[in-house]
């Protein structure tokens, strides 16, 4: 059993020592992941966990890797990508230079999916994709551009459903049990650590994707992060959320127009 006061004190200590703020994350979800981490490390109490991770940066890195969620795949939710091709790409093509922010990029599958889509739409050469995440271990995997060959069948199916225009195998090279994504896809990607709960806007973008991240935040943090995206978007820029997410709790919800209700694509209008 994790005591509520102990839980709050632990999160405040993590924020003070490392600058990671989990205080506005969905409590039940964070507690569940903390318990799982404690069980895996055979830690008996939250106080013991605090002593372990607050004094040992390496231990804290392992904690962050476990507590942040990294569930992703290439062309996840294929019809979202179809909607992007239909409703967004033509408008992005009017810009001489395109900046895309993928917030909460995890191990990079969504990043490489977007790079492939932009390549096929003839926009990749004038696009920079900024891929950020709180988890440095996940970011390193994303930078390496390596995936398991066991996933290629399902990834290929997703790609085709998403409106893929070529052979999916054109975009990677298989070696042993892994595949390496084509180097040309990585040339216009910038990977960086960014903490949505604490960090500020760092550029102006035409397109922001933050899919299946807000579901782990409470309502106050969801609104704060939507405000961050609002500040980071150019006029008539696009914001894409996960299919279980919405602008319902955001102060800036009236500043966006719904482009695709089902696929959660919005355009900044005010």
TrEMBL record:
Molecular functions per Gene Ontology: S-adenosylmethionine-dependent methyltransferase activity
GO biological process: methylation
Location of the CheR-type methyltransferase domain: 1-269
SMART domains: MeTrc
Lineage of origin: Bacteria, Pseudomonadati, Bacteroidota, Chitinophagia, Chitinophagales
Matches recorded under SUPFAM superfamilies: Chemotaxis receptor methyltransferase CheR, N-terminal domain, S-adenosyl-L-methionine-dependent methyltransferases
Protein name: Protein-glutamate O-methyltransferase CheR
Keyword tags: Methyltransferase, Transferase
PANTHER family attached to this UniProt entry: CHEMOTAXIS PROTEIN, CHEMOTAXIS PROTEIN METHYLTRANSFERASE
Biological source species: Niastella caeni
């Amino acid at each position: 059993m994790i005591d509520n006061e102990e839980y709050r004190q632990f999160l405040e200590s993590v924020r003070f020592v490392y600058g990671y703020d989990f205080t506005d994350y969905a409590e039940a979800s964070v507690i569940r992941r903390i318990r799982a981490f404690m069980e895996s490390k055979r830690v008996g109490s939250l106080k013991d966990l605090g002593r372990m991770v607050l004094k040992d940066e390496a231990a804290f890195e392992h904690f962050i890797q476990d507590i942040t969620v990294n569930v992703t795949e290439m062309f996840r939710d294929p019809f979202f990508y179809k909607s992007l091709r239909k409703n967004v790409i033509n408008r992005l093509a009017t810009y001489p230079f395109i900046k895309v922010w993928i917030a909460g990029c995890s191990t990079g599958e969504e990043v490489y999916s977007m790079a492939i889509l932009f390549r096929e739409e003839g926009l990749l050469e004038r696009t920079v994709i900024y891929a950020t995440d709180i988890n440095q271990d996940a970011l390193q995997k994303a930078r390496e551009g390596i995936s398991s060959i066991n996933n290629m069948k399902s990834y290929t199916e997703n790609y085709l459903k998403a409106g893929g225009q070529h052979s999916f195998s054109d975009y990677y090279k298989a070696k042993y049990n892994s595949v390496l994504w084509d180097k040309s896809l990585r040339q216009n990607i910038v990977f960086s650590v960014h903490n949505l709960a604490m960090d500020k806007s760092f550029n102006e973008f035409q397109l922001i994707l933050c899919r299946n991240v807000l579901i782990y935040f409470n309502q106050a943090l969801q609104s704060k992060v939507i405000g961050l995206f609002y500040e980071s978007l150019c006029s008539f820029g696009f914001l894409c959320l996960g299919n279980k997410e919405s602008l319902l709790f955001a102060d800036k919800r009236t500043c966006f127009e719904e482009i695709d209700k089902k696929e959660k694509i919005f355009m900044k209008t005010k």
